[in-house]
Amino acid sequence: MAGPTRLITLNLGSQAIALAEFRVAHGGLVLVNYRLRETPLDPETGQRRDAHLALHDTAAVLGEMLHDMQIPRRAVNYALPAQSVFARFVKLPPIGQEKLDKIISFEAQQNVPFPLDEVVWDYQLVGGGLGEQIQVVLVAIKVDLLDQTNAAVEGTGLQTSIVDIAPAALYNAFRYSYPEVGDCSLLLDIGARTTNILFIESGRIFLRSIPLAGSAITAAIAREFNESFAAAETRKKLGCLTCASSFTRNFKCRSSFLIRCKT
Asked: Which DSSP symbol is given to 130?
């Protein structure tokens, strides 16, 4: 049976939603349509509302995007932000495929910090093999959080096909787009709440997600200029930080953020 000729992908960030439609052509993917839309935040604090209202906002914004882009309701692959899931890298000795699932299941019991009946978990091989150590990334998400998120997505008429986490999706996209690259590569994904850092070399990967990103910069600007989060976000996006009269506050703002990055 032939695969789908169109793919819908969705990136559910903590502060924005990205929706894209691809066409399968000549063994590759062609971007047909793309849209990025921010989700509602408290203009004073920059925080999302409670979880139930946040998911309602997500569904509403996603529904508007689907309508504006005239995308039919079909299967969707979507990625969750790193802070929503638990991820752990595990190294295993060289073993055959028949033993791999059992050993990884044991590793999941040892590493996932929740009872396995309370989470949905899976794994991906990201390095090794052929006599080398096998590198595996374990990923787990609480069942209730996944069910709520999935309900918001499917409430728009889409049908979930694949659920991934943003760092793993970024890694897979890089390997798909640049299969010939063997030297060390650094991928830096700065979101609103989390920065994902990926080092990739010869099939091996090092990943770290740190809870410091764009919103921390906005919060630092808001403190230094004594203004609301919304005003500081606008100032950041417009690049209005280099005025001579604001040089001292601008320097303090940058220094504050860099100090937090080092800690």
From this structure: T
What is the pTM for the complete model shown?
A: 0.80
From the list 198, 25, 232, 38, the residue with the least C-alpha distance to 126 is 198
Q: What is the tens place of the pLDDT at every residue in 34-67?
A: 999 988 766 666 666 656 667 888 899 999 999 9
H helices present in 39-142, as ranges:
51-69, 97-111
CA distance linking residue 120 with residue 77, whole number of Å:
17
Give the structural domain span for 253: 214-262
Q: The domain that contains 160 carries what CATH number?
A: 3.30.420.40
Q: What is the tens place of the pLDDT at every residue in 179-201?
A: 888 889 999 999 888 999 999 98
Whether 207 is in a domain gets the answer: no
Cα angle 35, 71, 1; round to 5: 120
Sign of CA dihedral 81, 126, 172, 187: positive
DSSP 199: E
